[in-house]
Design goal:
The complex is a heterodimer of chains A (195) and B (263).
Chain A lengths: L2 H12 L1 H11 L7 H30 L7 H27 L4 H10 L1 H18 L3 H7 L1 H7 L1 H16 L5 H15 L10
Helix pairs in contact in A: 1-4, 2-3, 3-4, 3-9, 3-10, 4-6, 5-6, 6-9, 7-8, 9-10
Chain B lengths: L5 E2 L12 H6 L12 H4 L10 E6 L5 E4 H5 L4 E8 L4 E11 H8 L7 E6 L19 E5 H4 L5 E6 L2 E2 L9 E3 L12 E7 L6 H5 L23 E4 L6 E2 L7 H4 L13
Parallel strand pairs in B: 1-4, 2-11, 5-12
Antiparallel strand pairs in B: 2-3, 4-5, 5-8, 6-7, 6-11, 8-9, 8-10, 12-13
Classes of the chains: A mainly alpha (195), B alpha+beta (263).
Chain lengths: 195, 263
């Protein structure tokens, strides 16, 4: 199968949650609070894709699997998917929570730390998305890696944004934080080759 | 016993009702789980057979009421606004009777300054009570004048039927000018006290959920604005009204109080 087709297919797979969400939106199946459903689902998937992106390197080191396309492309599509879901998440918040009002949004950011933290994570993710191509990788040379290490900070801030939002049940944010912690720890050691 | 009630047209008959599907399937009832879909899903684990409500504390005639006693009060249907502290709202027809009628029966003494409401404790059956997300059982409280206010409703039904478990069956409180969590569900004890009770949410996060928790668009929750609310089923928000639209009836209760301090 040509690489381009593989790329498109894998991107489409990553878009399935968005497709389901759109379908449920159009068929009025998002329940009593559709905006909240849109925000929570897109936020969840942004975090899932960030964690998946961070899993690629340790998986590569331990299992050296034969990926269906070059590993860096798998990781790029996953990272760009995280960005896409985060952008939809922001758009829903801006249009339906903030009535598409810039001033109201700025006030919200200024007054609420969890909004500021989420916004910071998203703003940091945008340059990573833009510079994800091979062209930018060549142009930035060693700085490309430095820049893309920001994904660690971004994931941490994304999960923190979620943890600060919940009312009492911290189970899921703590689970995500633990997974993030494990993925970070794995980068501190030379991982055993298991296959 | 048959479930009989009469509509009371004095209570906002002009407001457009929320789709019953939303009120029945989107619930905060942490005894049954923290996700909004948990309460309808685990509704069966709330056992309401032979329910009794004990009314005790600083009163001349402490009594235990069973459901037949409680349904013997004239049941009326009132359409109220309901505003959750999380920023969503609904308009639903509750069925019940003023709490004051129940309190009158036990004859509160002059020392009774507050009323504490205690919800069901059943760790064995209620899935949410297996986790100490809140200090179970759920407790809420009102000042006695708030409790005696004619808007304060002991609620036994919703949308023409007896309360569904996910909505706090068989009997709950509804205080329409306060955030929804003040309206304790599945109540088993009502206690008259001389000290301000500490409610469960107040205990869990005192800077976020105050004792009064009156709906107030001018006082933000620490993590979100309360200026607007999203009616269930709609995409866009509308402005939140002072005291949830009941200012005319209840503002006098708080005359001279700093509502930013007593949030």
């Amino acid at each position: 199968m040509p690489l381009a087709i593989k790329l498109i297919l894998f991107s489409l797979i990553c878009a399935i949650p968005a497709g389901l969400l759109s379908f449920n939106l159009l068929t009025d199946n998002l329940g009593a609070n559709p905006v909240e459903a849109l925000e929570h689902t897109t936020g969840d998937w942004a975090i899932y894709f960030l964690l998946l992106t961070l899993s690629i390197t340790p998986i590569q080191q331990m299992f050296a699997p034969k990926w269906f396309m070059p590993m860096h492309l798998v990781r790029r599509v996953l990272g760009l998917s995280a960005l896409a879901y985060a952008l939809i998440h922001l758009a829903v918040y801006f249009v339906f929570d903030m009535s598409a009002d810039i001033n109201e949004t700025l006030t919200d950011i200024a007054e609420r730390p969890f909004i500021l933290i989420g916004m910071t994570a998203l703003l940091l993710l945008i340059p990573l998305g833009i510079t994800s191509t091979q062209g930018w990788q060549r142009r930035l040379k060693r700085n490309w890696q430095r820049l893309h290490k920001l994904v660690y900070t971004i994931t941490f801030l994304g999960i923190l944004h979620y943890a600060l939002l919940v009312k009492a049940d911290l189970f899921l944010p703590l689970l995500y934080m633990t997974l993030f912690g494990i993925l970070m720890l794995m980068r501190q050691f030379k991982l055993p080759r298991l296959r | 016993a048959d479930f009989n009630f009469a509509p009371n047209s004095n209570f906002r008959p002009d407001l457009k009702l929320t789709d019953p599907e939303h009120a029945l399937n989107y619930n905060n009832f942490y005894e049954l789980g923290t996700d909004k879909s948990d309460p309808p899903r685990y509704a069966d684990s709330l056992k309401t057979d032979n329910w009794q409500v004990r009314v005790e504390g600083l009163c001349a005639k402490p009594q235990t009421f069973d459901m037949d006693d409680l349904l013997a009060f004239d049941q009326e249907e009132r359409i109220y606004r309901f505003r959750c502290v999380e920023g969503w709202s609904m308009v639903v027809p509750w069925i019940g009777f003023p709490l004051s009628k129940l309190l009158d029966k036990v004859e509160p003494t002059s020392q009774a300054k507050y009323v504490e409401f205690i919800s069901i404790l059943d760790r064995e059956n209620l899935p949410g009570q297996r986790f100490n997300i809140l200090d179970w059982p759920y407790r809420e409280g009102l000042r006695i004048d708030e409790a005696m206010h004619p808007l304060t409703l002991m609620t036994t039904g919703l949308y023409g039927k007896e309360l569904q478990n996910q909505n706090g069956a068989p009997i709950r409180l509804i205080v329409p000018w306060k955030y929804g969590f003040k309206s304790a569900k599945s109540i088993v004890t009502i206690r008259l006290t001389d000290k301000q009770p500490v409610s469960s949410w107040e205990q869990a996060a005192p800077d976020e959920y105050g004792f009064y928790s009156n709906v107030n668009p001018n006082v933000s929750h620490p993590r979100w604005s309360q200026a607007k609310e999203r009616p269930l089923g709609s995409f866009f928000k509308k402005k939140t009204l002072m005291f949830n639209g009941y200012a005319e009836d209840v503002a006098d209760l708080y005359k001279g109080m700093d509502l930013k301090k007593y949030y």
